[in-house]
Amino acid sequence: MSNKDNIFSSPIDNIGNFSFDENVVEVFPDMIQRSVPGYSNIVSAIGMLAERFVKPNSVIYDLGCSLGASTLSIRRNIQQEGCKIISVDNSKAMVERCKLHVNAYRSDTPVEVLEADIRDIAIKDASMVVLNFTLQFLSPDDRQNLLEKIYAGLRPGGILILSEKYVFEDQNANDLLIDLHHDFKRANGYSELEVSQKRSAIENVLIPDSIPKHKERLQQIGFSTVEVWFQCFNFGSMFAIK
């Protein structure tokens, strides 16, 4: 059972940039469920998509794997033989805990958990790549290069899952969806102080793109099919098929 997220429950004099450190790891399952609308639905559906798209003797990449929720969902649903999952995160604390979660469940599909920068990972012979709320934490200048590398490493017919927080070009819509997200967090027990301090900590770390920006970039790279398959407020998930 997860510890309750109270990281921002007391006043902080100097709020630094948010990082996925040991304190976050201890409360991450609670934090993500109470902060990201639809997160559990997305993770479950990633497993369903794995059942459809993972091919025999291929590699599946979970880039920015955190504690391994998507990795485990994929592994539970793989029906093919000879597959391997490579799960990557740059947080040492996340990787150590992810390895424990992965090793707690037996499976015929091996999982390699790596502590590394996802920009340095070679993508080869992939039938599925997952970026589940990961790309948004990269510098905007690095996003195109990573997506191009993923496209090049995907087999024909392979799928990329890209879950993100979105910004909206219509300012009224954007403000409303931000407010609804904050209402969602309050409904899940976060105080005004927690909402405010978390927003201050993450605003320079998480730089969202718009849905049209994502679509345009993925289509320009060469993906044949690009679409949003899930959205709740200003959070959602897209698939891109090569």
From TrEMBL:
Catalyzed reaction equations: prephenate + S-adenosyl-L-methionine = carboxy-S-adenosyl-L-methionine + 3-phenylpyruvate + H2O
CDD domains in alphabetical order: AdoMet_MTases
Enzyme class, broadest EC rank: transferase
Record: residues binding S-adenosyl-L-methionine: Y39, G64, C65, S66, D89, N90, D117, I118, N132, R199
UniProt xrefs under SUPFAM superfamilies: S-adenosyl-L-methionine-dependent methyltransferases (SSF53335)
EC number(s) recorded for this UniProt protein: 2.1.3.-
Keyword S-adenosyl-L-methionine: yes
Residue intervals passing through the bilayer: none
Molecular functions per Gene Ontology: transferase activity
All residue ranges annotated as the Methyltransferase domain in the record: 60-158
Keyword line: S-adenosyl-L-methionine, Transferase
Record family assignment: Belongs to the class I-like SAM-binding methyltransferase superfamily. Cx-SAM synthase family.
Complexes and interactors: Homodimer.
Biological function: Catalyzes the conversion of S-adenosyl-L-methionine (SAM) to carboxy-S-adenosyl-L-methionine (Cx-SAM).
Protein name: Carboxy-S-adenosyl-L-methionine synthase
Gene (name only): cmoA
